[in-house]
């Protein structure tokens, strides 16, 4: 099996894990409150990343990684590197807190399948955010926005032309995750992204725990009853899913990677049907289809141009073809 095929299969597995996590989040609401669940799952995700950090350190040493991008322990980092790591972890953790909290509140009021598609709207919002930085937005992106807007109308707005509170929370969740992606894009080239993820999970857990203490009261027995969705969302969706993404994206094309990962919304609907026996209406399924078309349309052209440009730069620097 080639490295590329293996990487693509790992990304497909990641999308399936993330899609099924929406069902875990939905089921967890039967026994505990949203902020209690998020505080626990984020803490579990952070703890699950500790052995992953150790494993990646070992793999990096075996590969002979060096230079500025070499893996270093926190003690080996310079003061500037430590500040970048901590700043990135805190900023991403705050964005993750808002995104995950709004998502959990939205899932409580709607369904796992709908939440999966509305949340994935961030893939369209990310290129649109370039307007704030005076970057041109391609016509294909505007067409994608139109498709997603129509899809959202079919998915969220009822025939009586009303929209639920849960739908608004999911839309705001997509905005929060857009900020989260932009922050990761800014900080990840400057620091160790797995360690930064560990910090963001700790920050998000602490913030959720703070809100939980003042607004919720979930007994320990409720957490024990909901241990299955907690472990799934924390260990598999958080720790394992993120690590698989990092490892797989080293050996595959970014266009293929982005398309495979956005399939989490499709897996969310399938998981809702297979595990909960819940089906979307024909109107909602049509909305999901339009949104999926818009998501794919928004991603492909930009990623292809980026890949060609990166390949051209690599050929210019080495005088030959870049290695896969």
The largest sheet is:
none
Q: How confident is the prediction overall: mean pLDDT?
A: 78
Low-confidence runs of at least 5 consecutive residues: 303-324
Rounded Rg: 20 Å
Helix content: over 70%
Q: Kindly, what is the distance between the CA atoms of the first and last residues, rounded to a whole number of angstroms?
A: 15 Å
The chain-level structural class is mainly alpha
Order of helices and strands: HHHHHHHHHHHHH
Strand percent estimate: under 5%
Number of domains: 1
Question: What is the tally of beta strands?
Answer: 0
State the shape.
globular
What would you say this structure looks like, in words?
This protein has one domain (3-65, 85-318). It starts with a helix and ends in a 6-residue tail after the last helix. Mean pLDDT is 78; it is low at 303-324. The chain has helices at 3-28, 34-62, 79-109, 112-119, 122-128, 139-156, 165-187, 193-215, 220-225, 227-248, 254-261, 264-276, 282-318. It has 324 residues and is mainly α. Helix 4 packs antiparallel against helix 12. The protein has 13 helices and no strands. It is globular.
Q: What secondary-structure arrangement, pairings included, does this model have?
A:
Layout: H1 3-28, H2 34-62, H3 79-109, H4 112-119, H5 122-128, H6 139-156, H7 165-187, H8 193-215, H9 220-225, H10 227-248, H11 254-261, H12 264-276, H13 282-318
Helix pairs in contact: 1-4, 1-10, 1-11, 1-12, 2-8, 2-10, 3-7, 3-8, 4-12, 5-6, 5-7, 6-13, 11-13
